[in-house]
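We store amino acids, tokens; thus:
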Amino acid sequence: MPPKLKKMFQKSMSDNSIDPATLAAAAAIVAGARNPGSAEASRNPSPPVPGVPAPVPVPLVTVSSTTSTPLLEQAKNALAQLVKTSKMNRSRGSALAEKPEVQLMLDKDLFLIQSDRRTKMNPLQQMQLLRVLSQFFLERVDDGHRYAYFEAIFLGRVDDPVLHEYRLSVMYQLVSFSVQYPVLQILNHVMGWISKLNNETQERMYCDRLIDMMVEHFVRTSNIENRMHDYLLPLETSCSEFCALFIARAPLHGPLSPAMVEVIVQYCATNMQFILRHLRDTPWQGNDFAEKVIPRLVEQMLVDETDDSDSLGSCICYFLFRWHIDVLANADRKGPTKRIEVLDLLLSPEYPWTKRRACVLTSAIAASTRSEEVIQKQLKKLFVPVTFKPAVELLCSGTVKDNPQKVLEALSEMTLTRELRALAGETN
């Protein structure tokens, strides 16, 4: 278990108040999606006009290029005018987003939308726009008006469904591009916008659209050579909101590959308390997490035998112990109403016995509403390899619910026959 996780886990039991390798995917990100039926709008930042074919991929434009083009100058001038207007009017909040003259200027000079609303940027122009926007926000990291700029650029056409969707599609592409640039503050702005939505249906739609895109661009495409998922790791310290959302939704949008498990474990090790609060304060995510996500994580932990799976098991134990204490709704607070119940999965005869399984089973017994006697009967019916009988006997001792920490410590210190044989093999 990583030291960070181990320290966090031990403290959880005693205290209720716990404390660039390449941009090779960028052109594909801008040009289109692998599957036109999956998060299509987030991968095609062109005005959604029926009958117009998707843009054709073009060779990658190097981000560090300083070549100036008419589009670049036009976009820079539009953004400079936005800043000037903000300073002249001391506009904050939604004031810039609500100014018709500002929005018309952005439509025409930044997004290239003309009166017929059929003008499209080609992939090269799209890439140039993303570069200009990334540099714009990078240069204004300390500007107190930066969210007002973000809101004016991407959220100023909510009254027009076609233009609003077009701007949002560019925004999502900018998120993916900016993670590689990097300009990590843009993702914070997006998460801030989503948190202000007072409509669960919209919140769910935009959250899933974001996560689906990030999984597609950085997890599904990741392999030993490119390690695309490494671009997501710095977010653990720069955008806790995204980390929490990733934990809550990413396992529903892609396989639990080594890349995804690595990201999940790292996010949990750094942001566990924030993740728990996020799941408490966003009940629909909390309920889905308890019913759909945790079972997937448990199943992955049961079938995988890598070190990352050991760390994943530690995270699962922590969620099991703290769920009813820190997250579940009660008489004093609102929150998700679904308990985490994974005992049937852990007691299934389909999975191999490991010390990791025994440890997670301890946590699940302690958190379950079933009586320990009923659980003991289920355990005794299972076929258990001789090497794991001491561990199962400990789980049947009747002390798990009273003192799960003591049982966990005993399991951790237990040297099973299989381990002894492995050690003997190493010394011979």
